[in-house]
């Protein structure tokens, strides 16, 4: 087996926003022939194939195809699933088993900041279970506990129109830039540094909605208020705006986890891997306003 094959990095979910960004950053760091992607629909990854990336069909629902898509990989990056209707824990277990069966030497998994037992944010249970599978897999593994990296306009709601951040009671969260998470992940996959077990990949500063209101006020020159909405009222408002109740209640558990301190710890690893200070929420809000 050639050295190139032994050093291959295979990325799942490479047509999703995070996975695609990771592949783009990998292409800046390693030859394309060292990169493979495992995707549900190969036609959506043609732009990677055109640049020399190995594209194979593979999904967590098809263990045989998944194992084939992992063939020759030294490292496999498992991007976590998020289908609320699926048995995501079972799918992740199958993906770990497929990577082991394919001979991967290390599995890197996109976990979640604060993925510990007791965290009320519902996806946390999926990540806790998956990290347990990784620990029992018999191969080296890394769980990147990514900070919340959703767009800030989704986090804050229509504050520019209303002049207020109206959300449930919260707590400090190191809101993290998704592209920087992708870049840092690529740096880790392509480099010589190894991390064993869970590692927090989050912004170095945790902020609350009160903090964000002050930052937004400074940037706009307007007084941006903070309105604490009762949990059940917020769910009712979400439903009234067309959000399914199941989704609204899932989102509510994020605020409940934040106020309980599960996301309060910031991270230093992101800056280390990037080799620079990550973007602050002020930087990101300013960019959003400029756009």
Highlighted features:
disordered N terminus; 291 residues; 14 helices; alpha/beta; single chain; seven-stranded parallel β-sheet; two-stranded parallel sheet; globular; 9 strands
Give a short synopsis of this structure:
With 291 residues, the chain is an alpha/beta fold.
Physical arrangement of strands within the biggest beta sheet: 3-2-1-4-5-6-8
- Total helical segments: 14
The succession of helices and strands, N to C, reads HEHEHEHEHEHEHHEHEHEHHHH
Based on DSSP secondary structure assignment, what is the total number of beta strands? 9
Give me the Rg, rounded.
20 Å
Q: Beta-strand percentage?
A: 15-25%
Q: Summarize model confidence as the mean pLDDT.
A: 95
Rough outline: globular
Binned, the helix content reads 40-55%
What structural category do the secondary elements indicate?
alpha/beta
Termini separation (Å)? Answer: 49 Å
Describe this structure in words.
Helix 4 crosses helix 5, helix 5 packs parallel to helix 6 and helix 10 packs across helix 14. This protein has a seven-stranded parallel β-sheet with strand order 3-2-1-4-5-6-8, with helices on both faces. The chain has a two-stranded parallel ribbon with strand order 7-9. The longest helix is centred in the C-terminal third of the chain and has 15 residues. By secondary structure, it is α/β, with parallel strands linked by helices.
